[in-house]
Amino acid sequence: MGPQRLPWFLLPTAALLGLLFLSSLRLPEVHLSACVRGGRPCGWLGGRGETPPSEEDGKPPLLARTSGSRLPLPRHGTPTPARAPRCPGQAFQISRLLAAFRACVTPDGEILLGEYLAGWKELIKLIDTLGAAFGLLARETQTKMEILQGHRAGPHAPHYRTLQAMVAFELRRGLVGLRALPPGRPPSGCRTLLRLHRALKWLELFLGKLSHSGPEEDPSQLCAEAYQAALAPHHSWWVRQAAGLAFLALPSRQELYGLVCAEGEREARAVLLDAVGVIAGVYNVTQRLYAARGLLELP
């Protein structure tokens, strides 16, 4: 059975709150428990007399700082598998996503930022197809990409060809701001990419859960679980509530399968697993680099 849909008059509110979901990445973390129960926001959001959780209640578990998904790295230049179908007339193309993320990891284990952003360009199209509540999230992510593109086209462009070169350059020049945002400067590439990095883990976990789950499992619940593991530890309580509203508008399982233009459930699962493996490989390289340089908790 498909997920519960929002009444039409709540969609603008969900969309507005959804924008806060990613834009609030600038806000400090509030150590409160995530509140998404079965893909639905908790009772206090609706004014039913409950109160928000106290700090003593704990917070969602943080991801390991140096470990990621135990999946092999994609090989640079590896062609897209034949079973990744093309979808005529559809903006999102799973084949383009796989090709970009496969190509962004070099044989030496470096991340090519141009190919990385090309992969995110396809992911934004995927997020945008999830409904009105997710459209503003896609545009906020686009803003992060434009910041990185600005660095790549700026006076220091040679230092922004790879992730490793960017990190070394910005740390050497004191551009990162390990404890606070440097005043009067545009956001650093390291800080901006960290926000994309966290969101990439969310999408990886969600697609993995979708590919391994049964037809009786609600995609909105799977998306909420992935959010709690990857993004909720970095968000305030109010942003977690906004995320819960957005999950209610998630398309059904069959609609999500249709986004990869697969013929049947078996092919859809295989294509999603391909995507999860490629995304996880890119995530793991970035995670190790950021952990080694102490960049995983940038403000």
Distance between the termini: 40 Å
Q: Residue-averaged pLDDT, rounded?
A: 77
Number of strands: 2
Instruction: Characterize the largest beta sheet: strand count, sense, and whether it forms a barrel.
Output: 2 strands, antiparallel
**What structural class is derived from the secondary structure elements?**
mainly alpha
Radius of gyration: 19 Å
Low-confidence stretches: 1-82
Oligomer: single chain
Helical stretch count? 10
- Summarize the amount of helix as a percent range: 40-55%
Approximate strand percentage: under 5%
Write down the overall geometry.
globular
Q: Order of strands across the biggest sheet?
A: 1-2
Helices and strands, in order, run as: HEEHHHHHHHHH
Describe the structure.
The protein is mainly α and 299 residues long. The protein is 51% helix and 1% strand. The protein contains ten helices and two strands. A two-stranded antiparallel sheet has the order 1-2. The relative contact order is 0.21.
List the helices and strands and how they pair.
Blueprint: H1 11-23, E1 36-37, E2 40-41, H2 94-103, H3 113-128, H4 132-153, H5 163-172, H6 189-212, H7 219-230, H8 237-248, H9 253-258, H10 265-292
Antiparallel strand pairs: 1-2
Helix pairs in contact: 1-4, 1-8, 2-3, 2-10, 3-4, 4-6, 6-7, 6-10, 7-8
